[in-house]
Amino acid sequence: MNEFILVLIAYLIGSIPTSVWVSRYFFDIDIRDYGSGNPGATNTYRVLGARWGTLVMVVDMLKGFMAVKLAFLLPAYAGSEINLQNLQTILGLAAVLGHIFPIWADFRGGKGVATLFGMVLGISPWTAISCVLIFALVLYLTRFVSLSSILASVAFPVFILVIFNVDNPIYRVFAITVTLMVLLTHQKNIGRLLKGVESKAPILKGRNRRKKTTKNTEEEDNV
Asked: Hey, is 197 helix, strand or coil?
């Protein structure tokens, strides 16, 4: 019964529709009616700007992080690392499910990547840090948040199964499932990437402007 209550709490935490509440309270709009229609950090960046997008991303990550930490409320799991990790995985997935199907926002949520990252950060921080480095590198090179999320999720089971070799069958299955889930929820993004029409995040634009300026200067020097 205690486990069930914690799972329910984790789902309710995950159900907090950060971007929806921020857009309604501060801008009197529903973020789901603008941009891509996805109530996540990326669409918030596009519609409301970097400051609000960052806020949404941080809070959504905290939802997953806080959910897995609920496991420490049950001392019986503290004696077994594998049992604790399994409970944390269940709680984290409940939070991700809440983010995708939030009870506080008509069950119309986001894709759960930020909440999923917060969950992994709470369970295996070194793996999460490794994945976020890949995410950041791909984002810097391409400015495609979707591609960055996809490649980071593909790297996740590689870190769990090969590099860190986590000795927990359930967590290993979870790592593979994460990749499949991210690929499934990003089908439209993958289609747009293949067609070359995927939108880029409105960040790191200064880098592109500097490159363009440098290129134009070099062309002028060559004239």
From this structure: coil
